[in-house]
Design brief:
alpha+beta; Immunoglobulin-like; 7-stranded antiparallel β-sheet; two-stranded antiparallel sheet; 9 strands; binds copper (II) ion; metal-binding; Superoxide dismutase [Cu-Zn]; SOD-like_Cu/Zn_dom_sf; SOD_Cu/Zn_/chaperone; SOD_Cu_Zn_dom
Length: 195
């Protein structure tokens, strides 16, 4: 009987640690440009009813750039359309200044300095790294995307922010041995592909 009890205890603790991995307090997201070069990181950390994002990037054009969380955790170059539209679980309009917005994934513009560097501290209000409707790690995750232009905070569907130039996949850390789930086809639900 003893080995059986031991075995059960071990599988229970494995199960518990797996749950903890799926509910991270913080995550580091690697950011890549359209050539597949790593250009920085975003450190995401769980806050009360928000996720804080500490972003460091290099190699951008100086000036303002739009940044959003998009709905699928797939960054495939050269256009990153695999990340789908903005994360918008509540069906709102796009834009930080829109009266019926914003999307959960909307964020204020970031600014690259004369050397092309960005250091920004952002907050994604209402989002979570835990599981649930507003989770960034549900299903196949989400993606943090920087655009060539700036977000005007109002235009539908994506703030007229232009080409996607940098992308980072946001996933729960996987336990070793867990195989990747088959990703959904982003084209199925995307009638209007956002810029
Ligand atoms: Cu975007």
């Amino acid at each position: 009987m003893r080995p059986l009890v031991l075995g059960l205890t071990m599988s229970l603790s494995l199960l518990l640690s797996a749950c903890l991995l799926h509910n991270p307090k913080s995550l580091t997201v690697e950011m890549y440009n359209i050539d597949g070069d790593r250009v920085g990181t975003a450190l995401l950390s769980e806050q009360e009813d928000a996720v804080a994002i500490e972003l460091d990037l290099e190699g951008l054009q100086p000036g303002f750039h739009a940044i959003h969380v998009h709905e699928y955790g797939r960054c495939e170059g050269p256009d990153f359309t695999t990340a789908g539209n903005h994360l918008n679980p509540e069906g709102k309009e796009h834009g930080m200044m829109h009266p019926e917005g914003p999307h959960l994934g909307d964020l204020p513009n970031i600014e690259a300095d004369a050397g092309g560097l960005v250091h920004a501290e952002l907050e994604l209000s209402g989002a979570t790294l835990q599981e649930g409707k507003n989770s960034l790690i549900n299903n196949n995750g989400t993606a943090l995307i920087v655009h060539e232009g700036q977000d005007d905070g109002m235009s539908q569907p994506g703030g007229d922010s232009g080409t996607r130039i940098v992308c980072g996949e946001i996933h729960a850390e996987k336990e070793s041995g867990e195989s990747e789930k088959a990703p959904t086809d982003p084209t199925e639900q995307n009638d209007e592909q956002e810029e």
